[in-house]
């Protein structure tokens, strides 16, 4: 297989793009570096496409390696034929390759193996020939011995051999696998019908394999794993076994009838159980991959939420008995003060709590209060809202997800960062910093603990970690980091820098003072020229010796950037003064193509340089909508009424809808059918985590703490009904019980700590 050619065809890319990209990957260039600084070679492929291409490249290389191993193993057995060699070469998946190898794979001791040991293979071949003149019972007499005691034993042994040979047929297995995906059903029954669980709607459930949604597969898998469900694949036995019989039974002779019986036995005993495992494994793998993609997309949006810059923030970690932990941070994230207040039950020291917070707000000029959404958050939010109404200062607040905060605050990293604070106060600092700079704070936490996915604890952990780490890496590098303030956690995600080198950068900074030039990185222990090439462009040096160090212009392009400034009538000093404003228009007047030729750089790189020189030190997150801050009255779920229109923030996107924070303790669910008027296959097509949206309340279940919302505000019909429109396609309807299972699952409870 020509892997590069295959990649070009599958991704619809030019061969040159793929060849160059693969060469860069093989040269140990990171995905962020390739995406940002090698656009001419890749044709400006973005980081997500590059990661997909990388994953596929690794799969195809593993496939070729396995095919070579299979070829060598069969050749060693001296059983290789031109037909086998061609089939192995043509295999496009690992499953196909393993099917071909199946007859030659060393087997454990089977019934067929024992029959062969007893000398029955020639008899099996005789029966398989299905000669109409052959009388099986008469021929069996010749094979009776100490281990084969009678005619029936001989025939049974021959049948076992035939059944195993049929089960090893790659073509049969392929056709039955295809039939299973096309016509099979996934069926679930209660393991114990008297047991109550969130899976009750799956106690008698079936759905075609080709139509079942990914999140329902994951629900069935979890129900089975927890012992509440028995899940199986159902396939029409007559059709499936008939497919085998049609291939192997060539007449109606007595031998043919034995072949028929062997084919039926092969299907029931050997093939179907194996196919069932393979089909369910593939369904689960595909569902997991989809869940990981959704998690990754949500994580990307969460990390890239707009930071709340130039604000003094008070972080409040709610609690009941132990009190609410308070931490005040300045505009750089430095902790200014900490304390504990007790405005919630059972202490209810509301006035004392107000006095302490008023003093902190006045002393430090607090502009925003960040409230964690865990235990006692509703009471804490009500307390803060009441406090804000009593003070003259203009202060807003926001409830932020504290998912993973407790994990971080008890970590070794948090202990190193805040050795003087206990675990609970570290959590308050984290809650404040999450609002100030989500990216810088959330990179300290295991991505799986951030809580923006579905069934994340059931995913293949290695694949999950790989995908989510890639997202964090892409986000950190696309934003860039301040070399003089970034933590080693943040630096470790920069292209070319590992955890050890990140700590060395911080150690160098602490010992020698702030960096004034990117070139100083070469003095950091274990950071060589290759690592410097990878990381330099993503690290910013503000107010340094060279203004270009505060841009995403790579040092390799400094000469071209200086020449561009000169050609357009600007100087490096203009960058220090706030940017070479108007350079884009000036370059356009001269001609981009002309400048590209004169400077000897590609047009994509030239456009990137122009953008950076016009806005040095820019943060792409600044162009995003700011977070939704609140200052008004706090509502409870009992205050909500159908028809109310509210503004909220999307907290999580999953396969069947989105959860929206509308300012009450529980997030509301917008089902996929209620997101927009057009048909969508997945909510991510229309909405993303962190987005501020307008919603209308459809239904409120106070007892179960469930809120049903719609984003279809212009649809009069939806004001009257909570049901999905009958015109929607069936796959957009909420399957009975599926959403309930997931909403009750802790993985989805956004408001839990």
Written description of the protein model:
This protein has a five-stranded mixed sheet with strand order 6-5-4-7-8, sandwiched between helices. A five-stranded mixed β-barrel has the order 11-12-13-15-14. A three-stranded antiparallel sheet has the order 2-1-3. Mean pLDDT is 90; it is low at 717-753. The chain has 753 residues and is α/β, with parallel strands linked by helices. It starts with a helix and ends in a 9-residue tail after the last helix. Helix content is 48%, strand content 11%. Helix 12 packs across helix 15 (254-303) and helix 13 packs across helix 15 (254-303). It has 32 helices and 15 strands.
Please sum up the structure shown.
The protein is of the alpha/beta class and 753 residues long.
């Amino acid at each position: 297989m020509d892997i590069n050619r295959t990649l070009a065809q599958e991704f619809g890319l030019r061969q040159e793009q793929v060849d160059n990209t693969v060469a860069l990957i093989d040269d140990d260039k990171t995905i962020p570096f390739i995406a940002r600084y090698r656009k001419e070679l890749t044709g400006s492929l973005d980081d997500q496409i590059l990661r997909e291409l990388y994953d596929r490249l690794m799969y195809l290389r593993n496939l070729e390696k396995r095919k070579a191993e299979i070829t060598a193993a069969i050749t060693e057995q001296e059983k290789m034929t031109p037909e086998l060699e061609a089939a192995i070469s043509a295999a496009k998946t690992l499953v196909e390759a393993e099917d071909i190898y199946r007859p030659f794979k060393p087997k454990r001791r089977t019934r067929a193996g024992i029959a062969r040991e007893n000398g029955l293979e020639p008899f099996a071949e005789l029966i398989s020939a299905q000669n109409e003149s052959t009388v099986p019972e008469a021929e069996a007499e010749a094979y009776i011995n100490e281990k084969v005691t009678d005619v029936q034993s001989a025939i049974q042994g021959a049948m076992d051999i035939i059944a195993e040979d049929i089960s090893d047929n790659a073509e049969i297995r392929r056709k039955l696998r295809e039939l299973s995906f096309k016509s099979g059903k996934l069926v679930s029954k209660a393991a114990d019908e008297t047991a109550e669980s969130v899976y009750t709607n799956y106690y008698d459930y079936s759905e075609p394999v080709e139509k079942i949604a990914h999140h329902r597969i994951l629900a069935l898998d979890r129900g089975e794993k927890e012992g509440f469900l028995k899940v199986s694949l159902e396939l029409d036995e007559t059709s499936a076994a008939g497919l085998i019989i049609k291939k192997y039974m060539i007449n109606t002779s007595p031998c043919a009838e034995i072949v028929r019986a062997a084919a039926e036995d092969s299907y029931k005993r050997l093939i179907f159980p194996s196919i069932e495992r393979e089909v369910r494994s593939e369904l689960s793998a595909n569902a997991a991959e989809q869940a990981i993609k959704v998690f990754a997309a949500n994580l990307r949006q969460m990390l890239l939420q707009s930071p709340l810059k130039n604000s003094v923030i008070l972080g409040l970690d709610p609690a009941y008995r132990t009190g609410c932990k308070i931490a005040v941070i300045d505009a750089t994230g430095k902790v200014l003060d900490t304390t504990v207040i007790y405005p919630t039950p059972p202490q209810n020291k509301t006035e004392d709590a107000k006095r302490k917070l008023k003093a902190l707000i006045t002393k430090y000029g607090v502009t925003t209060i960040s409230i964690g959404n865990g235990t006692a958050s509703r009471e804490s939010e009500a307390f803060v809202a009441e406090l804000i109404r009593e003070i003259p200062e203009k202060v807003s607040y926001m409830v932020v997800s504290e998912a993973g905060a407790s994990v971080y605050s008890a970590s070794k990293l948090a202990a190193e960062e805040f050795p003087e604070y206990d675990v609970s106060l570290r959590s308050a600092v984290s809650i404040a910093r999450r609002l100030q700079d989500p990216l810088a704070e959330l990179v300290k936490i295991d991505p799986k603990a951030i809580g923006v996915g579905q069934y994340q604890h059931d995913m293949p952990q290695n694949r999950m970690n790989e995908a989510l780490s890639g997202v964090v890496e892409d986000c950190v590098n696309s934003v860039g980091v301040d070399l003089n303030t970034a933590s080693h956690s943040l630096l470790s995600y920069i292209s070319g820098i590992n955890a050890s080198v990140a700590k060395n950068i911080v150690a160098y900074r602490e010992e020698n003072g702030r960096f004034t030039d990117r070139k100083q990185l070469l003095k950091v222990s274990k950071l060589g020229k290759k690592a410097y090439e990878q990381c330099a462009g993503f690290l910013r040096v503000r107010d340094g010796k060279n203004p270009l160090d505060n841009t995403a212009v790579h040092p390799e392009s400094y000469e071209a950037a200086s020449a561009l400034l000169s050609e357009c009538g600007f100087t490096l000093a203009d960058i220090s003064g706030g940017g070479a404003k108007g350079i884009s228009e000036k370059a356009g007047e001269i001609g981009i193509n002309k400048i590209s030729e004169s400077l000897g750089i590609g047009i994509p790189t030239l456009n990137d340089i122009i953008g950076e020189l016009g806005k040095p030190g820019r943060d792409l997150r600044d162009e995003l909508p700011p977070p939704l801050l609140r200052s008004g009255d706090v509502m409870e779920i009992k205050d909500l009424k159908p028809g109310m229109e509210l503004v909220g923030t999307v907290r999580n996107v999953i396969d069947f809808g989105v959860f929206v924070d509308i300012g009450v303790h529980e997030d509301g669910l917008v089902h996929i059918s209620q997101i927009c008027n057009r048909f969508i296959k997945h909510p991510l097509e229309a909405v993303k985590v962190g987005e501020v949206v307008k919603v209308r309340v459809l239904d409120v279940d106070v007892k179960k703490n469930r809120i049903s919302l719609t984003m279809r505000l212009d649809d009069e019909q939806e004001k009257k009904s909570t049901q999905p429109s009958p015109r929607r396609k069936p796959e957009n309807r909420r399957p009975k019980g599926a959403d309930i299972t997931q909403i009750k699952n802790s993985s989805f409870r956004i408001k839990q700590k």
